[in-house]
Design brief:
54% helix, alpha+beta, two-stranded antiparallel ribbon, 7 strands, 17% strand, single chain
């Protein structure tokens, strides 16, 4: 019962984290315009994402332009694209693996094999979280470095956007959910099967017989 509860809770957290990771990947708000010094009053706000750049006018109108060339992008954007897509794919694979080994499904009959499959799904979710965490921290570090660099003009400075915060939340959920799935694999949670060992007894006529006693 405890193992089933851990599986359900871990899977719910991981699915939520995977969905948030996909949302963060698609949102254009990885970098947003920093309102500092003479840049406080502006007529437009610029959003820089992995796939497009959007300009939001003060009137509420928004225009987005997809990045024309992948090779023309900065190295951090190229890496973030690749790693976030890999993270999303791993999330889908981990979901299929975990559901196949869950106690509420009958895809696999052997309980020992089901436990190992669920454990493998939890490990894949943790790997997916790490793939998501690397570009988030890299992008955040570059934004902070450029923000405090005196060589970058105020109009070019950017702040951390909402997509990065959503990605961090997704990473936390994936790590927590994957850990719960791995914990449900332990014998202490699933309940160890009773072991028994044969013991020799001597009957009245002197014959030896084997009896199995639970220990």
């Amino acid at each position: 019962m405890l193992a089933a509860c851990l599986e359900f809770l871990g899977l719910a957290l991981c699915v939520t984290g995977s969905l948030l990771a996909m949302v963060a990947c698609g949102l254009p708000m990885w970098k947003v315009t920093a309102f500092i010094e003479s840049n406080i009053v502006v007529a437009q706000t610029i959003w820089d994402g992995l796939w497009m750049t959007c300009v939001v006018q003060s009137t509420g109108q928004m225009q987005c332009k997809v990045h024309d060339s992948v090779l023309a992008l900065a190295q951090d954007l190229q890496t973030a694209r690749a790693l976030t897509v890999i993270s999303a794919v791993l999330g889908v694979v981990a979901l299929a693996v975990t559901v196949a080994g869950a106690q509420c499904t009958t895809c696999i009959r052997d309980e020992a094999v089901k436990a190992k499959v669920v454990n493998a799904g939890g490990i894949v979710y943790i790997v997916s979280a790490l793939f998501m965490l690397v570009p988030l921290c890299w992008m955040a570090n570059n934004i902070i470095v450029d923000f405090y660099s005196p060589q970058v003009p105020p109009s070019k400075k950017r702040e951390i956007g909402a997509a990065i915060y959503i990605g961090w939340a997704a990473t936390a959920l994936l790590l927590l959910g994957g850990t719960l799935l791995c914990c449900s694999f332990s014998q202490g949670v699933r309940g160890a099967h009773p072991r028994y060992a044969p013991t020799k007894t001597v009957s009245a006529n002197g014959d030896l017989s084997l009896k199995k006693h639970y220990v």
